[in-house]
Amino acid sequence: MTVNFAHRGASGYYPENTMLSFKKAIEMGCTGIETDVQMTRDGSLILMHDERVDRTTNGTGFVKDFSFDDIRKLDAGGFFSKEFAGEKVPAIEELIELVKDKDIVINFEIKSGIIIYDKIEEKLIDTIYKYGIEKKVILSSFNHYSMVMCKRLSKEIKTGLLYMEGIYRPERYCRFVGADALHPYFYTLRKEVIDEIKRENVMINTFTVNEERYMKYLLKEKIDGIITNYPDKLKKLMEESHE
């Protein structure tokens, strides 16, 4: 069964990477949540896509320069709509608490490409084990060095390699890196590419799929996971495909 990953929560309808967005995604029937991990000046792991707070909050500056307390003072909802003003930037523990007893996979994307956060992999993996959710998590990153580090720290937590372009024989590269999954931009997934990846028993979790025609194609190809801003649309198509 394809995992319906809500991209930063139900971010097509609600402010991304907020607890509201995650809760609404669960109400819409998602079976996975994709989110982004950054680290504050004092070493707290928070959920935000950008290295800067400017786009999604009323603040200015880099996440790395804020303390956790200062990050929490920011408004993370008003950028999307005035009705969501007052939403906070979540700590990763809040999302884990929300889903730890639910049948939901969390895809934590480690944002360690532009800013190299010291020991972010160790901190994240320690937190995952603290809550006992190591079987319900997949880690991903565009920084594949980070994914190699994660495998060194934990053999059992799955890792996925994010990429945008048409990598030649990505399934071989995935095996070389030691990852469990490929997380490609969906435009790269021609049928022959999908078939080669499947032959190597490599998982495919693709992003960010918002149009129904692409959802239908990927469901037909039995992709392992589809990351979407509209988990309700994907759920409806999944139900229809099993009628």
Give me some keywords for this one.
single chain, about 240 residues, alpha/beta, TIM Barrel, eight-stranded parallel beta barrel, globular, Glycerophosphoryl diester phosphodiesterase, PLC-like_Pdiesterase_TIM-brl
Helix segment count?
9
Spatial ordering of strands, largest sheet: 1-2-4-5-6-7-8-9
Mean pLDDT: 97
Helix content: 25-40%
CATH class value: Alpha Beta
The helix/strand class is alpha/beta
Rg from Cα:
17 Å
Distance between the termini: 14 Å
Tally of separate domains: 1
**CATH fold annotation:** TIM Barrel
Order of helices and strands: EHEEHHEHEHEHEHEHEH
Describe the protein:
The protein has 243 residues and is an alpha/beta fold. The protein has a single domain (3-51, 91-241), classed as Alpha-Beta Barrel (TIM Barrel). 33% of the residues lie in helices and 19% in strands. The chain has 9 helices and 9 strands. It has helices spanning 19-27, 68-72, 92-99, 120-130, 144-153, 170-177, 191-199, 212-220, 231-241, and strands at 3-7, 32-39, 45-47, 105-110, 137-141, 158-163, 181-184, 203-206, 225-228. An 8-stranded parallel barrel has the order 1-2-4-5-6-7-8-9, surrounded by 8 helices. α1 (19-27) links the parallel β1 (3-7) and β2 (32-39). The radius of gyration is 17 Å and the shape is globular. It starts with a strand and ends with a helix.
SSE inventory with pairings:
Elements: E1 3-7, H1 19-27, E2 32-39, E3 45-47, H2 68-72, H3 92-99, E4 105-110, H4 120-130, E5 137-141, H5 144-153, E6 158-163, H6 170-177, E7 181-184, H7 191-199, E8 203-206, H8 212-220, E9 225-228, H9 231-241
Parallel strand pairs: 1-2, 1-9, 2-4, 4-5, 5-6, 6-7, 7-8, 8-9
Antiparallel strand pairs: 2-3
GO molecular function: phosphoric diester hydrolase activity
Protein name: Glycerophosphoryl diester phosphodiesterase
